[in-house]
Amino acid sequence: DLQWSDAFSMEIIADFIQTARFNSEFSSSEQMPQGGLLFVGSFRDNEVDEDGFLMKQIKSMEQSSVKVNRLFVGELSEHKIHEMISDKLCLPPRYTGELAQLVHSKTRGFPMYTIEFLKSIIQSNLLTFSVKS
């Protein structure tokens, strides 16, 4: 949740990433093992200003040869939620359609809300596993 980070924390993270990149490129293979650093951060793009310090720091890292990959996660369609529920419950889609409609209407397809809603109905025993003999 990098959208809540402060400028100082972002500077430390950026310096650490850039230092790790420098050390992995220029270390002697006999004295220091070569390695790398994988840093995974997330932020809500609707809560970050394009000219804010987070975006400036990301742009700075991109310009300094640090490889930055962005993965945009959008809303899930009712169809995708239906597929996911059917797959996770190991049930044919004809049995999970109404649940998928309910989940989509309650969460509007936001991935985090979808997962949390499903967890809550399981914890509330509204969705249970049953073996028929």
Beta content comes to under 5%
Ranges where pLDDT stays below 50 over 5 or more residues in a row are none
Please state the CA-atom Rg, rounded to the nearest Å.
22 Å
Categorize the overall geometry.
Answer: elongated
The topology string of helices and strands comes to: HHHHH
Percent of residues in helices = 40-55%
Largest sheet: none
N-to-C CA distance: 47 Å
Mean pLDDT score: 85
- Structural class comes to mainly alpha
How many DSSP helices? 5
Describe the structure.
The chain has 133 residues and is mostly helical. It has five helices and no strands. The chain has helices at 7-26, 53-63, 78-89, 97-107, 111-123. Helix 1 (7-26) packs parallel to helix 2 (53-63) and helix 3 crosses helix 4. The longest helix has 20 residues, at 7-26. The mean pLDDT is 85.
Topology overview:
Blueprint lengths: L6 H20 L26 H11 L14 H12 L7 H11 L3 H13 L10
Produce a short descriptive summary:
50% of the residues lie in helices and 0% in strands. It has 133 residues and is mainly α. It starts with 6 loop residues before the first helix and ends in a 10-residue tail after the last helix.
